[in-house]
Amino acid sequence: MMISHLRARLFSICLALCFTAGLALSGPVAAIQNIGFPDDQSLVLNKADQTQFQAAQRAIHEALITLAKFDGVDGEAKNEKVALQAVGHNAQIIQALAKSAGNRDIATFMATLETWSTTSSRNERTAKLVKKIEVGLMALKVRSK
After folding, report:
1. Cα separation of 88 and 65, whole Å?
2. DSSP 8-state assignment for residue 75
C-alpha cells in the first residue's frame, strides 16, 4: 500500500515538472498570451515616478501601434526593430516602478513583455496579440502617494 502511494506521488510530481518545463520552453509568446493583469491594475507612485510611468506607458503604446500597423508589411524591419526596442526599454522602466511600488504581477508582466520584444519572431507578433497587449497596458492606472 505504501509503495503504491509513493509511486502515485512520484508520478504526480513528474507530471507537474513536465508541465512546468513545457510552459517554460514554449517561449515568451505563450507566456504573454497566458499572463493576465491582476484585478488591481494600479500602482501607487510619487509624482516623479508617476510622470516617468506615464511617459513609458505612452512610448510602449505608440510602439505597439507601430507594430500593429506594419503587421505583414514587408520591408519595414527597421521600423519594427525601433518599435520593439522602445517596448523593451520602456517595459524595463515600468517593471522597476512596479517592483518599487510592490506590485509583482505588473512587474512580472513587464518582464515578460520585455522578453517578448527582444526574442519573438515576426510570426509571433500578430496584430491580434499586439492589440491584446495594448489593451492590458492601457488598463494600468497610477495613483499618487
Report:
1. 15
2. T
Convert the pLDDT of each residue in 9-55 to its tens digit. 655 565 444 444 444 444 445 555 555 555 557 889 999 999 999 99
Give how far Cα 30 sits from Cα of 27, 88, 129, Å.
6, 17, 11
Q: CA-based angle 66:98:54, to the nearest 5?
A: 45
Helices (H) and strands (E) in the chain — how many of each? 6, 2
Q: Give bridge partners of residue 43 from the DSSP assignment.
A: 142
Tell me which amino acid residue 86 is: A
- Write the single-letter amino acid at 68: A
pLDDT tens sequence across 86-129: 999 999 999 999 999 998 888 888 988 898 888 866 677 778 88
- Residue 24, CB-side half-sphere exposure with 13 Å CA sphere: 6
